[in-house]
Amino acid sequence: MNIWLLLSLAIMTVLVTILWLRLHPFMALLLAGWIVPVGTPTALLRSHAETLVQRGDLSNEEVGPFVNRPAINRLTDAFGKTASQIGILIALASILGACLAESGAAGKIVECALACIGERHAAIALAFSSFLLGIPIYFDTVFYLMVPLARSLRARSGKDYVFYILAIMAGGSIAHSLIPPTPGPLQVAEIIGVDLVTLIFAGGIVGGFSSLFSLLAAWTINRVVEVPLRDAQNEQVMELGSATSATSPPLFFAVLPIAIPILLIGGAAAFRLWLPGSFLASCFAMFGEKNTAVGLGTIMAMALMVWAPQTSKTPKVVADALASAGTIILITCSGGAFGMMLGQSGVAEKLSLVQSQIPGLLLLVLAFLLTAAIRTLQGSATVAMITAAGILQGFASADSLPFHPVYLVLAIGGGSKPVSWMNDSGFWVMCRMSGMTESEGLKTVSPLTIAMGLSTLFWTLIAAWLFPMKG
Questions:
Q1: Nearest-CA neighbor of 170 among 218, 226, 112, 221?
Q2: I want to staple 217 with a disulfide (CB 3.0 to 4.6 A). Which of 127, 212, 423, 451 is the partner?
Q3: What's the pTM?
């Protein structure tokens, strides 16, 4: 089968099965991942194997068994490889986030941000807090946690409800798509080949600037659209009662589960660069490995459960977090396997040739538009990021790429923001938890996701132009 026809068939399989047949994304990505190796010509597979030999990833003796291996076996191997790279990390991050929420640590961070910045600038405090919490905690959970606070602020001030709601999105949603260990950026980094330290650093800077500009967009939308304070679905379930100062941990302990993994991972990279072979470098290499670092953060988060109203709930909190993480792991691993199958089909090599004909920074615009199109059509930001990364992985391997591949990851992350509307589960979460109607959501949530995506693309382009880091 022609490689471009095969690529088109794979993309259409993902879109049609999710939109029309209403298949779960795990099934859709797995089906597309099976179709690709079945339709890949033997000549292209052998060509890819020879490329792996040149890179030292495969020996000459392994070429034959690799080419003759059944499609389903190659797919399951790719699924297992993806799980070995990110499965434990996602599970640990899920437990970490759940314990931060249940222990009151997340609420303490928000409470202290409000105290420092002041209620007059409450939207800035909400955006900052949600950005920080959006690194280890899934955005839906961040929104659940902070909506009651936005409602309380609206009840006291009598205005700016839309601003408060959108401020939570401006921080947490951007962090969710740019900074690991959330599944989207984590898997895209694996596919594109970007180390987590670089992505955390670059994603933090670009995401911070993008959040500020998105906050300005939220302020503008708030001036145009007025949403009254209505009863919200499950409001009583989402109260921040466990986050009051009487039951929550001190700020220092509340921040530790987030700060320690970042410091350990960053420290391991720094000592590896500056003091290779030293005792400190060996220590940080051990504890700064991504799974170990996040595991230590998870242990700290679980220790904070002593501040929870009922510490006996810890096993249930962990069990619920793992149940939620299981679905995410299945989606992410099937998406990773799909991406590997696209790589074996020769798409990466073909796109590397196309890349040479596209001038410089326009590659980032192309990555953004492709991801945004997939996101708008099928609704899931994570699926859009993984699918786009699988298609565009050839760009990252091209020697003529005029900037560091981390910017490609950030452009894909920015493209996963627009457009949130009726086919996005997050759209309904935000509308129902805030009490907005569908029409009000289309006037507020949807425009902000466009603004978030464009601001992320803008700052990614600026950063790639000023600091290409081409190594």
A1: 218
A2: 451
A3: 0.82
